[in-house]
Design goal:
Length: 236
């Protein structure tokens, strides 16, 4: 606001008739200026903060790629089909050695126990070990064929040693890799998940057509992570 200040009266001096006009900062004006400065500073800080938040961590691994499903599959050796009375499941992980055995897993579709006479039964529980082929959709296994353990030639599934990395990570690095891989890849019910050994990390997954292993090699180095699928492509 403008305030007019009268020229002071001094004895013996004639007044000039001039007035002095000055701008006086009132509390209201000071508050408005302070608010404008605060808003400008906050907007700049917020913009800079958004830019920082959008920058990904440089060492963070990218997510695992999606698999092409459904896929024609076969089991890696024998798997147990378990039915406690609520429908058959295929046990892709650990099996408790009790009687009857205890395990669980994805639902098995297209299964009729009358077509698979070689199996065990106690009360309403039925189970048996089979080499199966069928279709995997990511959550359930539709069985097309099943060979009981008594008729299965296990010698043809002789595994080969896994190659080792040329420059193995440290024990601490392997632990960190195991945690990352366990969070990135689909797990198997009853399996260990991802676990480090002396030089590598092993991870159990329901199925892999080579896509997950390729992602692991690209992300962590060749042979550092070994993907162990319970189900393989049928032609493999």
């Amino acid at each position: 606001m403008n305030r007019t200040i009268a020229e002071p009266s001094i004895p013996g001096v004639r007044r000039s008739g001039m007035t002095l006009s000055t701008s006086v900062a009132t509390p209201l004006r000071l508050a408005a200026v302070a608010a404008a400065v605060l808003l400008t500073t906050t907007a700049c800080s917020s913009s800079e903060g958004d830019d920082v938040a959008r920058d990904p961590a440089p060492d963070a691994p990218t997510g695992a790629p999606a698999l092409d499903l459904p896929a024609d599959v076969r089991s890696r050796g024998l798997v147990m089909v378990m039915d406690t009375g609520d429908g058959p499941e295929v046990c892709l992980g650990a099996i408790a050695e009790s009687w009857p055995p205890q395990c669980g897993g994805p639902e098995v579709l297209g299964w009729d126990w009358s077509e698979h006479e070689i199996h065990e039964k106690q009360g309403r529980v039925r189970w048996g070990s089979f080499a199966v082929t069928g279709s995997w959709d990511g959550t359930a296994l539709t069985v097309a064929d099943a060979i009981p353990a008594a008729l299965y030639d296990v010698m043809r599934e002789e595994p080969e040693p896994d190659p080792l990395p040329t420059d193995p990570p440290s024990a601490a690095e392997l632990e960190a890799i195991a945690d990352e891989v366990a969070a990135a890849l689909p797990g198997v019910s009853g399996a260990q998940g991802a676990y480090p050994t002396e030089q590598q990390v092993y991870v159990d997954v329901p199925f892999d057509d080579g896509t997950l292993q390729q992602w692991a090699d690209t992300t962590y180095g060749e042979h550092v992570v070994v993907v162990v699928p319970a189900l393989l492509p049928r032609q493999a």
